[in-house]
Design goal:
Length: 184
């Protein structure tokens, strides 16, 4: 059965989206920044509040809400679409470099999974959104997000991972993306 997201205005949602075939395309900061830039563009466009995030090597997690259900839906859809286009464009830029065979291999996998109008399927299916109903669940998801890089053995502590909301939330330092304080 296919996953179906249901959206409510002003509700907080935990979203996860994974790269097709779990390819670690987001391993470099440059590729992670592409996703962050796309997310920032649509957070602004749809007045979406971001409460927590992590951009991992092959997936992302975000906690968001918006004044309208449509804003949440469009922000996520367009972030994935925009980042997909920009990631594949970046991969295509490697086709005349020593990394051509790696880039071509990844593009072929993305092309194999595409359907509809898209030439490539960078993100696996649609992002799954889980409504957050209590402060306890919110903090559980936020801890999960922040500890993801530690579990993946990318860093020894959450504060060492740059593409996460940890430093913004717990140490007041500016992060890659602006964070809102939730009213729970």
């Amino acid at each position: 059965m296919k996953w179906k997201n249901y959206y409510q205005p002003h509700s907080i949602y935990f979203f996860t989206s994974r790269i097709t075939e779990k390819i670690h395309i987001l391993r470099t900061d440059e590729f992670k920044q592409i996703v962050a830039d796309s997310l920032q563009k649509y957070l602004d466009k749809y007045a979406v509040n971001l409460y927590g995030y992590v951009i991992m090597d092959n997936h992302i997690h975000i906690l968001i809400s918006a004044p309208t259900a449509e804003g949440v839906k469009r922000c996520v859809q367009q972030t994935l679409r925009d980042s997909s286009c920009n990631l594949t464009r970046k991969l295509e830029s490697f086709l005349d470099t020593p990394f051509a065979s790696q880039a071509q291999s990844i593009l072929q996998i993305f092309a194999k999974h595409s359907n509809g109008k898209a030439r490539y399927a960078v993100w696996k299916e649609q992002a799954r959104g889980i409504p957050i109903c209590t402060p306890t669940v919110f903090h559980t998801k936020l801890d999960y997000i922040h500890n993801n890089p530690v579990r993946a053995q990318l860093v020894s502590e959450p504060s060492a991972y740059r593409f996460s909301s940890y430093l913004s939330i717990y140490q007041g330092e500016p992060g890659i993306l602006p964070i809102e304080s939730p009213i729970l």
